Amino acid sequence: MIYLKKEDYFEVYLGSMISNIDKDVLFTLYQPILGHDAVALYLTLYSEFKKQEITSFSSHEELMELMDINILKLQESRKLLEGIGLLQTYYKSDKNGNSFYKYILLSPKSPTDFLNDILYRGLLVRAIGAKKVNQISNLYKSKEIDLEGYSDISDSFKNVFNPSFDSSSFNTSIPTDNTFTKNTKDISKEFDKGAFLSSLEDNHGIKKTFIKEDDLNEISRISLLYGISEIDMCDIIHQAIKDDKIDFELVKNLSLNSQKYSTIITNDNLIKSNDLYNPTSLKAKKIKLMSETSALDYLKLKQNNNAISPSDVKIIDDLSQQYNLPSQVINPLIDYVLENYDNTLPRNLVLKIAASLVRNNIQTTIDAMNYLYKVKNSKKTSKIDKKDENDKENVTVEDIKNLLKELGDE
Known about the structure:
This protein is α+β, with helices and mostly antiparallel strands. The protein folds into 3 domains: 9-111, Arc Repressor Mutant, subunit A; 193-258, no CATH class; 279-406, no CATH class. The protein is 51% helix and 6% strand. The protein is built from 19 helices and 6 strands. It has helices at residues 20-34, 36-51, 60-67, 71-84, 111-116, 118-128, 130-139, 157-161, 193-204, 213-226, 230-240, 248-258, 282-292, 295-302, 310-321, 327-340, 347-359, 365-372, 397-406, and strands at residues 9-14, 58-59, 87-93, 99-105, 241-242, 245-246. The chain has a 4-stranded mixed sheet. Strand 5 (241-242) and strand 6 (245-246) form a beta hairpin. Helix 2 crosses helix 4 (71-84), helix 9 (193-204) packs across helix 11 (230-240) and helix 16 packs across helix 17 (347-359). The longest helix has 16 residues, at 36-51. It is globular.
């Protein structure tokens, strides 16, 4: 990960048409997911595009002053825009150590495409709830028209404009290569559904039509959660088809058994430093590790590559499936509980904290770490005596209340 410096320069380009309707969609559909800082960054970059017709480059320091925002929040806001498909970022540095960014703004999805996309709709439901999403969707529904008894008397193009297609006006070629079009970005590229379906048919003879859309989304979720490639997932699905249906419990078990673990980072190459912007610092490396590692890989790493118990696998799966938490949020949660509860994962406690993270709309590794580590400056949470396997669940209601109180969630 490349960390921003205020001295770095940037240019803004439009990769798509951006209309006033798009701005309305930004506020209504995107802002509940991204927050106001990210939306403000998008609109400010759009404004900078207009300014850069006069001066090509701007500095991030100027952008920070304009938005009254610090560099960490600026970088987090930029990542949110990239993740949701509104921004593409390109980077280079020269021999003098100067860094340059090119930002390409992409248009928001149309309301119909947004609400029909399971990923976007799911993020919005997670942010504001299904009831409010249904209310918003009604804003974008066209009013039904009753045309019974009416006749269409609209005039035609030909009658109104009388075009003569023999005229040179209609045979003049105008270059349109650089004109703006309506471009949006697909945010689900982490799992290549097309490659998966093709491989499944080519290598196992299972027709693409056999996999229903809901099943494909669940396969994608499990693949990302367990760190399984599209090709390996084909083999797993082939084994998990029973009576013309996919046994997803078997898919999860096979995914767990097929994982190939390796030590991603060791204490030997961690440099102790408090400088978050130094990519070699301990904090930066830990954030990078949590952000880029699947939850099961991270838990495996935390226990020195030893096998994960079925009960712990079930906890992580529930965090993903029931609470819709991504690995980059699950990992700080795992890390926090293990460090504060004698390397155990008490189920009740983990799920209580997960619910608190969801209520507070925590979506990134840094936000999760900041939220969970607020307890560092408060009274230490009570430790659990590790006696046997059953003791992992012996967390009292009082323990949970005390922890949530320290987190400011009660």
